Amino acid sequence: MGIFEDLVAEGAAVPLEGWDFSWFAGRATEERPPWGYASLIASKLAAVESALDLQTGGGEVTASAAAAVQPPLLAATESWPPNALVASRNLPLVVLAPDDGPLPFRSGAFDLVISRHPVVTPWAEVARVLRSGGTYLSQQIGAGTNRGLTDFMMGPQPVSDARSTTRAQEEAEAAGLEVLRLEPAELRVAFFDVGAVVHFLRKVLWTVPGFTVEAYRDRLLDMHAHIQEHGEFVCASTRFLIEARKR
């Protein structure tokens, strides 16, 4: 029981600020999507005069992509103050703004809007702040992501279509955007100890809504036993890339 307690305590103590997953090195792995999001946005950022990163988290991904060539105007939004503080150290202009809008920018202000794993996409606001011919590029979490982990912890759960590629295309087009690229991917995820599961569930809140160690202690014990027996817990995450242009 001592190993279980130590691992759970470790996972419960890791700070949650920012969107840096380096703590998981050696403790969990996730296959990467084939399109290479960071490289894609780096090439886009190098070709525009103005860009907006929605729901930037700690700004780490965009800052890395913009390290070589940064547009004259690079702004970002974030809704959680601790993340916004981290992002302000990584990016030149970070504004606190709600995930679902409105966005505090004038219409047609940006050549490019990007977003990695947005909680929600405010399509009408994206279209509004893009100039005519401007591009929206986003890597999004797909429907049923990490369903195996959710079901293990909570029992079988229904899968909503709210994050489906079909819904994304319909909403983008309804906002006046032309979808140029829509590519889904299913990716292998493996956890190698229960502490990594605890930290992941604390950080990625929608996997098990309302997760606490106390409420899910019995399931965490079962997870620990599963990993001890099999060496890992495996599930699948879903992602999709969407690129759209303002008509």
TrEMBL record:
It comes from the Bacteria. Keywords: Methyltransferase, Transferase. One of its GO terms (biological process) is methylation. One of its GO terms (molecular function) is methyltransferase activity. InterPro entries: 23S_rRNA_MeTrnsfrase_RlmA (IPR052939), SAM-dependent_MTases_sf (IPR029063). Gene3D superfamilies: Vaccinia Virus protein VP39 (3.40.50.150). This is Methyltransferase type 11. It comes from Lentzea aerocolonigenes.
